[in-house]
Design goal:
Blueprint lengths: L1 H11 L3 H27 L3 H8 L1 H15 L5 H12 L8 E4 H5 L14 E5 L4 E6 L7 H10 L1 H6 L2 E5 L8 H11 L3 E5 L1 E4 L2 H14 L4 H14 L7 E3 L6 E5 L10 E6 L6 H9 L5 E5 L8 E8 L5 E10 L16 E2 L8 H13 L10 H12 L2
Parallel strand pairs: 3-4, 4-9, 9-10, 10-13
Antiparallel strand pairs: 1-12, 2-3, 5-8, 6-7, 6-12, 11-12
Helix pairs in contact: 2-4, 2-5, 4-5, 7-9, 9-12, 10-11
């Protein structure tokens, strides 16, 4: 019935709004139709997904998306259709965004990272809490400032809780200053491969201008990628660096007084660079991951922009492939915690989780705190002969 209703509207509506709807639908269809071919040529995961799910899966998804795209009336509706279609390929590290979403840059003197994204709290004489809700490039300097301004307190507290629940990621370089506190042991690094194509080369060239203007780390990383991809045959997978598929390194410099017990709180919204942070940090003997499995979006990474035919939207797709796969995939089911802690019901469940982990770090229990009623009932039970 929806398709019949749409046909009726198209054949009977001559208003300005209806013409606008037709134009939005036409542009949406154009954007949609270019995506599958582009992904198979340039996205590092697309061919593996095609082999896994089969051609019919993607043909059906495209047909359904095209039918929906023909009925959209605005950009928002188109975005929903395109991103729903992309879920047929994979759940993360693949999205369509409005061009203006990425092109807005922070003004001079502004504070890009909100206070609630990066926060330090002293919980007791033994324990501190670091809340890190994002690893975007604009979070790097605020994180460095946070660690510097609280250096003395961080150094004297043996127990740390690092809360990365809800951290959707960003850039690995953002969390690097934390590793000198956490990684006294040798760290094993697994390499990644770039997919060399003309579109990916352009994507690297355009990335910083679109999503991270003026960011030195972005410029450094993309320039290295451009140099390597520019020399490689089209369609080849090439190493990101000269360290080999796996390297063994020690963190330098190291903080002189580091925490002895670190609990990192994780959940299903920790993704991308957040997950890479966990793969790095959990190699320390002092670190435990507590909570629930992460989102699972890391095997195909390093998103780059491609301007879709409408000129109004960007396709952000993966240009690198981790050498962890197929032996150690993250996308399949996320990263499991060392200690599973199901989220308790209630509005203050996340705060309660911090309290429980603090108790555990200080020699107590991870068990939920008893309510007054439960304590009273336990006391009465103990009094019975």
């Amino acid at each position: 019935m929806k398709s019949l209703s749409f046909i009726f509207l198209v054949t009977t509506c001559f208003s300005v709004n209806c013409m606008g709807q037709q134009n939005a639908a036409e542009l949406c269809v154009k954007d949609l139709e270019v995506i599958p071919g582009f992904l198979l040529e340039n996205d590092t995961g697309a061919k593996e997904h095609l082999a896994q799910f089969g051609q019919k899966h993607f043909d059906d998804a495209l047909a359904q998306a095209k039918s929906a795209a023909m009925q959209v009336s605005d950009d928002k509706g188109c975005m929903q259709v395109l991103n729903l279609y992309l879920r047929a390929w994979r759940k993360g590290h693949l999205e369509v965004s409005p061009y203006f979403h990425w092109s807005i840059k922070p003004t001079a003197g502004s504070t890009p990272a909100k206070k609630d994204k990066l926060r330090f709290q002293t919980l007791s004489q033994k324990t501190v809490l670091l809340t890190l809700k994002g690893f975007m490039p604009q979070d790097r300097e605020p994180l460095i400032a946070l660690l510097k301004s609280n250096h003395a307190a961080l150094a004297k507290h043996p127990n740390w809780i690092i809360d990365v629940r809800g951290n959707i990621g960003g850039n690995d370089s953002t969390y690097q200053p934390l590793l000198q506190w956490l990684m006294p042991d040798e760290m094993v690094n697994v390499g990644d491969l770039w997919l060399a194509t003309p579109a990916n080369l352009e994507g690297h060239k355009n990335l910083c201008a679109i999503v991270a203007s003026g960011d030195a780390e972005c410029e450094k990383g993309t320039n290295e990628a451009i140099a390597r991809i520019g020399k490689a045959p089209t369609g080849s997978l090439i190493p990101q660096d000269d360290k080999g598929s796996i390297s063994f390194e020690r963190q330098t410099p190291l903080e002189l007084r580091r925490p002895s017990r670190v609990a990192i709180l994780i959940d299903g919204d920790c993704a991308s660079a957040c997950e890479q942070f966990l793969l790095d940090a959990r190699q320390s003997f002092n670190v435990k991951l507590i909570g629930r499995r992460t989102f699972g979006s890391l095997d195909f990474s390093n998103l780059r922009p491609f301007v879709l035919p409408s000129g109004e939207r960007l396709l952000m797709y993966a240009t690198s492939r981790s050498l962890r796969i197929p032996d150690l995939p993250v996308d399949l089911a996320g990263i499991p915690p060392d200690i599973y802690l199901p989220l308790a019901p209630g509005e203050r469940a996340e705060e309660e989780e911090v309290v429980r982990v603090q108790s555990w770090l200080e020699g107590g229990s991870l068990a939920p705190r008893k309510t007054n009623a439960e304590k009273e009932n336990a006391g009465k039970a103990a009094e019975k002969p």
